[in-house]
Design brief:
- The chain is an alpha/beta fold and 500 residues long.
- The protein has three domains: 283 residues, 3-Layer(aba) Sandwich (Rossmann fold); 147 residues, no CATH class; 54 residues, no CATH class.
- The protein is 44% helix and 15% strand.
- The chain is elongated, with a radius of gyration of 27 Å.
Length: 500
């Protein structure tokens, strides 16, 4: 597979990637709703699309990468009913909604920096694009596919489906939705509730119609004037308006998690098709979810983990802190379209694997070269990495190729193989282009490495003293305990050396 192929959710098949404009790629990613601190679920998507972005840049593309901030309109339960998540949190914290949004946006971006995620080209906020959203709603109304009721505006899904396919992305059938309580506007587990929720359902022509604009109650903090009355935008229209403003009515890639496929992305396609006469994006790419011990993350299950808890190891499910690069490596070990099960055991295994890779990386620059041609070759690894990345970003296979490279590096370092200057240069290029390049990995903080070296030296000195005192049992116990943890100890004429 000599060229990049990506799985397009819209066509449900692997497709050759061909940008709309040669040499340029526009990407829109649904960003966070900033009403709380970043958590484990916030990590996978940014890493997946960061790798995609880096790989496109590696292949010479000019990439405009837009990731939005949702700071209004995303209601509790992802429905058209209930409280706005930001509005609710602002009341809890007794702060202005924008103060809440700024606080958690800052925290989110700080975590993205730790994970070595390239900053977006543009990071638009929903509240900064109310005019564009109102204008787009009006276009949809003028087309006869939206209607206003009591100050709210709803998208008419049934009317739209007359000449279009509502369900083209998710595969859902509108007739099935209309005969069930799984209404689009209220999420897959909608159950009628009291008060305003029931009133809103009564406003709709069909339960599957979704809100473009919501009338604000008197106590709703965030509200704007419109021709339909004071209110705030629906969640779906925000991304449609912002993506069109910064990438055009038709752009290359729209990405997000599978949890956004329906109703959010399905609604975006419907809105874009009415407003611009075609689907907003050429390729729709979705990553799968992270589970914890086989279960979906949920507050009710008590298994949610904040990003900072991952870094400091304070969560009950964790035995220790983990570095941001261990987490990135852990996520890259699974293909983005498969589920990724999180556990302390899995993280510990990823940590050890990443440490082994770093140990080999640290040997590269000091490898002794031989005149002429050495026996070590890397052409097969170069080809394997390229083929794996072009096969729908198969990062697990890329990592497998890198570990084969590490094995060959260790052979040369141990004097069991030889390397020429030309091959060493290729190895250094692989390190820079792959590990530090499109995989976005960086070596763990040197202070941590120094601490590990100091701790190892203490253990090796204890072992050395034990052997001097003929305490062979203690010396062997130290060696065997370290071996069990993945450390290799060697006694050489120059002294004892170790490596992972």
């Amino acid at each position: 597979m000599s060229s990049l192929h990506l799985y397009n959710t819209l066509s449900r098949k692997l497709e050759l990637f061909q940008p709309i404009t040669q040499g340029h790629v526009g990407i829109y990613i649904c960003g966070p709703t900033v009403y709380g601190p970043p958590h484990l679920g916030h990590l996978r998507g940014p890493i997946v699309f960061d790798v995609l972005r880096r790989y496109l840049i590696h292949n010479g593309y000019n990439v405009r990468f837009v990731r939005n901030i949702t700071d209004v309109g995303h209601l509790v339960g992802d429905s058209d009913e209930g409280e706005d998540k930001l509005d609710k949190q602002a009341k809890v914290e007794k702060l202005e909604p924008m103060e809440v949004a700024q606080t958690y946006t800052n925290q989110y971006n700080a975590v993205m920096d730790k994970m070595n995620i390239i900053k977006p080209s543009i990071e638009p906020r929903a509240t900064g694009h109310i005019i564009e959203q109102i204008e787009m709603i009006q276009v949809i109304m003028d087309a006869g596919l939206a209607y206003a009721v009591n100050g709210s505006v709803y998208f008419d899904v049934v009317a739209y489906n007359t000449n279009n396919n509502y369900g083209v992305l998710s595969g859902r059938v509108l007739e099935d939705l209309l005969h069930s309580q799984d209404a689009i506007s209220s999420g897959p587990n909608w159950v009628p509730s009291q008060g305003r929720a029931l009133e809103s359902q009564d406003e709709k022509r069909n339960p599957s119609d979704f809100a473009l604009w919501k009338k604000a109650s008197p106590d709703h903090i965030m509200q704007w004037n419109s021709s339909w009355g004071k209110g705030f935008p629906g969640w779906h229209i925000e991304c449609s308006a912002m993506s069109a403003k910064y990438l055009g009515a038709y752009f290359d890639i729209h990405g997000g998690g599978l949890d956004l496929l329906f109703p959010h992305h399905e609604a975006e396609i419907a809105q874009g098709t009415v407003a611009h006469k075609h689907t907003p994006a050429k390729y729709w790419i979705h990553h799968n979810m992270i589970t914890i011990a086989g279960q979906k993350m949920a507050k009710s299950l008590g298994n949610g983990i904040l990003a900072e808890q991952l870094f400091n190891g304070t969560h009950a499910l964790l035995d220790q802190p983990y570095s941001p690069m261990t987490l990135r490596f852990f996520i890259l070990q699974a293909h983005y379209r498969g589920t990724l099960d999180f556990s302390n055991t899995a993280l510990l295994a990823a940590q050890k694997a990443w440490q082994r890779m770093q140990s080999a990386i640290n040997l590269i620059d000091n490898l002794r070269v031989v005149d002429g041609s050495g026996s070590m070759e890397v052409d097969d690894i170069v080809l394997g990495i390229r083929e794996s990345m072009n096969d729908d970003l198969n990062t697990p296979q890329v990592i497998a190729h890198l570990f084969e490279l590490c094995r060959r590096i260790n052979l040369v370092n141990d004097g069991k193989d030889q390397i020429s200057l030309g091959v060493k240069t290729l190895v250094q290029q692989l390190r820079d282009d792959v590990c530090f390049g499109f995989l976005g990995l960086t070596l763990d903080d040197k202070s941590n490495s120094d601490g590990l070296n100091d701790a190892m030296q203490i253990l090796l000195d204890l072992r050395k003293n034990a052997k001097k005192e003929n305490n062979w049992v203690l010396g062997d116990q130290i060696r065997d305990a370290l071996k069990e943890k993945g450390f290799e100890i060697k006694d050489t004429p120059e002294g004892t050396v170790w490596k992972l």
